[in-house]
Amino acid sequence: MADVNGMWLGTYWQNGHPTRFEATFIQAGNSLSGRILDDGNLGEAQIDGEVVGRSIRFTKRYLTTAGHNVIYSGTLSEDANSMQGQWKINPLHSGAWEAHRSGENLMADLKNALEKETPEETPALAVTE
User: Fold this and answer.
1) DSSP 3-state assignment of 97?
2) How far is 57 from 26, CA to CA, in rounded Å?
3) According to the model, what pLDDT value does residue 121 have?
4) Which of 26, 65, 87, 90 has its CB surrounded by the most CB atoms within 10 Å?
5) Cα–Cα distances in Å, from 85 out to 3, 62, 80?
């Protein structure tokens, strides 16, 4: 059985547009849980699923108000360092996805980007006459 524990960096495509994501998988036997952070407006999601042999299947549930679940299914590479497959919300909304083991941290990148968007407070200058 493949071991998918750890951090993964991936991309999914919707209507031809790529969206990056960072996934942290926690595997116990065949059971799979964890979190995904999309680099988009939907944000963070929790996942649960299973790994059987080199097959992976999980459901992504966003923590925001998005009212749909996304089902991912795919296959792990022989060295278990990459995976790819298809995601599906319903027959009209589906696409390809892939992920690779990574040391990159999308959450840290997001926090850094948000800090740059937030103006720093500047101390008021004292006016003397």
Assistant:
1) strand
2) 13
3) 47
4) 87
5) 17, 20, 14
- Which residues neighbour 80 within 8 Å (Cβ) at sequence distance 6 or greater? 2, 3, 4, 54
Q: How far apart are CA 37 and CA 23, in angstroms?
A: 6
Contacts of 47 (CB under 8 A, 6+ apart): 23, 25, 32, 33, 34, 35, 36, 58, 59, 60, 61
Largest CA distance in the chain: 78
Query: Check: CATH 3.40.50.150 for 6-112?
Result: no
pLDDT in tens, the chain (129 residues): 789 999 999 999 998 899 999 999 999 999 999 999 998 788 899 999 999 999 999 999 998 866 789 999 999 999 999 999 999 998 889 999 999 997 555 555 555 555 665 555 444 445 555
